[in-house]
Amino acid sequence: MGLRPAETHDLVSARLRESGQHYTKGRRELVDFLVRAGRPASIPEMLEMRPGLTQSSLYRNMADLESVGIVRRVVGVNDPTRYEFSADIIGHHHHTICAVCGVVDDFFMTAEAQTSLERSIDEALGTIGFKPSSHRLDVFGACANCS
């Protein structure tokens, strides 16, 4: 699912404004980077993109974007935390995590497959009385480059 930069910037700007925060140049660059990356990105990857940015400033900006629901954390395998746009911005999706190199990518399911997955989860958890409100699916294996 591709994000349109202009629409993404408008949405991020509005959400920050609603929470009383500013859409600074640094935050705009981080949003641009996440749009271009098209997958969850780590702090080291972001620092590589902007070597002049301090790590503490980057963490602070990501924490601010996370606090208003613009980004969320994705944890891989023995890997730094990665950040991606929240589901209401990018759409509901899942992740592949390479157990060899650690790369994390998004994948989207058809509506039919997603419905089937949710039905299966509801059935399995219904047997123990658990009522799910959402889910996250991470699939571990080897990416195309490592397999």
Account of the protein in words:
It is built from 6 helices and 6 strands. Helices cover 46% and strands 16% of the residues. Strand 4 (94-98) and strand 5 form a beta hairpin. The mean pLDDT is 89. It has a 3-stranded antiparallel beta sheet. A 3-stranded mixed beta sheet has the order 5-4-6, with no helix packed on it. The longest helix has 16 residues, at 111-126. The protein has helices spanning 5-18, 25-37, 43-49, 55-67, 87-90, 111-126, and strands at 41-42, 71-74, 82-85, 94-98, 104-107, 138-141. It is an alpha+beta fold.
Unreliable stretches (pLDDT < 50, length at least 5) are: none
Instruction: Count helical runs.
Output: 6
List the secondary-structure elements in sequence, H or E: HHEHHEEHEEHE
Give the terminus-to-terminus CA distance.
Answer: 25 Å
Q: So what's the overall shape?
A: globular
- SSE-based structural type: alpha+beta
How large, in whole angstroms, is the Cα Rg? 17 Å
What is the overall pLDDT average? 89
Residues in helix, %:
40-55%
Order of strands in the sheet with most strands:
1-3-2
Find the count of extended strands (DSSP E, 2+ residues). 6
Biggest beta-sheet profile: 3 strands, antiparallel
Oligomer: single chain
Q: Strand share of the residues?
A: 15-25%
Feature tags:
alpha+beta, single chain, 147 residues, 3-stranded antiparallel beta sheet
Quick take:
By secondary structure, this protein is an alpha+beta fold.
Question: What's the structural blueprint in terms of helices and strands?
Answer:
Layout: H1 5-18, H2 25-37, E1 41-42, H3 43-49, H4 55-67, E2 71-74, E3 82-85, H5 87-90, E4 94-98, E5 104-107, H6 111-126, E6 138-141
Parallel strand pairs: 4-6
Antiparallel strand pairs: 1-3, 2-3, 4-5
Helix pairs in contact: 1-2
